[in-house]
């Protein structure tokens, strides 16, 4: 098992190197000249002399291979350069904004898990019941409504009409409720349907019949056997959505004026802030890679069939 886990961790290295190569290639193939973008962002009129000076300062006059090696070395030291707008280290600015995004991500995931697990499980074991129909309606609504429209709808009802929660910003738990709900509703729709389908599938497995034949109580079968195995697809979805939420809360952060990483990235795109954009892409890739690795290891612990498969590949 330890060897299998080590192999999975070592496999991250070539994947991340490939991501850095693709990012480096896209930036160099882009028609945007980083030196010109820096001068424009600094409100300086670009001239041939200034462009040549900045290209030399940024190392853009060096061979591409040298530039790529220098990029890898800098990234390994968490050095993504300085922002063209603020002239501050990019990693410093990203680090100051990440806690807000992490707070919003885990707030929405917590709501989604608390709602979707009992709802999806009950919908599966009580097929065609009232709660099953309710879960279908909720899933349809969550999958159909765009996040930005849902956010404005929540603001209108809960902030403007009822005055229960703040409209924008960050500070107290009340500021977190509406943006978290906005992000959580589509996740609830996805996880509920995944868990329901998985429960229905597992109820047809032979081990359920064997457990009932042995006289095991129905509650124990449902809780210790069905739910434990049926939750596996939901955990997979959780891993995929963790990376998506950490890097894709852009629209919701803009709607609620949430000072997170996604909003910072949008501003960087409009300002052609190349170091920030590069940092965002690489950080997004790292988050996706590590979140999926963690979820895979968690599934190996939950589902013994995956653990046995892992031992066979050692």
TrEMBL record:
List where the protein spans the membrane.
Answer: 9-29, 104-125, 137-160, 172-191, 281-302
Gene that this sequence comes from: nikB
Q: Which UniProt keywords apply?
A: Cell membrane, Ion transport, Membrane, Nickel, Nickel transport, Transmembrane, Transmembrane helix, Transport
Family the UniProt entry places it in: Belongs to the binding-protein-dependent transport system permease family. OppBC subfamily.
Q: Where in the cell is it found?
A: Cell membrane
User: Which GO molecular function terms does the record list?
Assistant: nickel cation transmembrane transporter activity
Per its UniProt record, what SUPFAM superfamilies does this chain match? MetI-like
| Protein's UniProt name | Nickel import system permease protein NikB
The GO cellular component terms are:
plasma membrane
Q: Tell me which Pfam families the record gives.
A: BPD_transp_1, BPD_transp_1_N
Q: Which ranges carry the ABC transmembrane type-1 domain? A: 98-299
Q: What is its main location?
A: membrane
Q: How does the protein associate with the membrane?
A: Multi-pass membrane protein
Q: How does it assemble?
A: The complex is composed of two ATP-binding proteins (NikD and NikE), two transmembrane proteins (NikB and NikC) and a solute-binding protein (NikA).
> Does the record's keyword annotation contain Transmembrane helix?
yes
């Amino acid at each position: 098992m330890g060897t299998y886990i080590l192999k999975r961790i070592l496999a991250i290295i070539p994947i991340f190197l490939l991501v850095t190569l693709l990012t480096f290639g896209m930036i160099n193939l882009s028609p945007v000249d980083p030196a010109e973008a820096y001068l424009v962002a600094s409100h300086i009129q670009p001239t041939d002399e200034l462009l040549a000076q900045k290209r030399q300062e940024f190392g853009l006059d060096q061979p591409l291979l040298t530039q790529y090696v220098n990029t890898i070395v800098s990234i390994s030291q968490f050095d993504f350069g300085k922002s063209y707008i603020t002239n501050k280290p990019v990693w410093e600015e990203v680090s100051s904004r990440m806690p807000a995004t992490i707070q919003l991500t885990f707030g929405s995931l917590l709501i989604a898990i608390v709602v979707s697990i009992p709802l999806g499980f009950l919908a599966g074991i009580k097929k065609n019941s009232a709660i099953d129909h309710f879960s279908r309606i909720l899933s349809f609504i969550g999958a159909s409504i765009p996040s930005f429209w849902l956010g404005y709808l929540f603001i209108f009802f809960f902030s403007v009409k009822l005055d229960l929660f703040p409209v924008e910003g960050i500070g107290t738990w009340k500021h977190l409720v509406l943006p978290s709900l906005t992000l959580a509703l589509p996740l609830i729709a996805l996880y509920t349907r995944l868990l329901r389908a998985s429960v229905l599938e597992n109820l047809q497995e032979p081990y359920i019949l064997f457990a009932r034949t042995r006289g095991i109580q129905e509650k124990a079968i449902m809780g210790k056997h069905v739910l434990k195995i049926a939750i596996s697809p939901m955990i997979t979805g959780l891993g995929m959505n963790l990376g998506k939420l950490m890097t894709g809360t852009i629209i919701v952060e803009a709607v609620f004026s949430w000072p997170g990483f996604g909003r910072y990235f949008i501003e960087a795109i409009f300002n052609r802030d190349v170091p920030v954009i590069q940092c965002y892409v690489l950080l997004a890739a790292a988050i996706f890679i590590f979140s999926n690795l963690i979820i895979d290891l968690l599934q190996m612990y939950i589902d013994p069939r995956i653990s046995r498969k892992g031992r066979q590949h050692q």
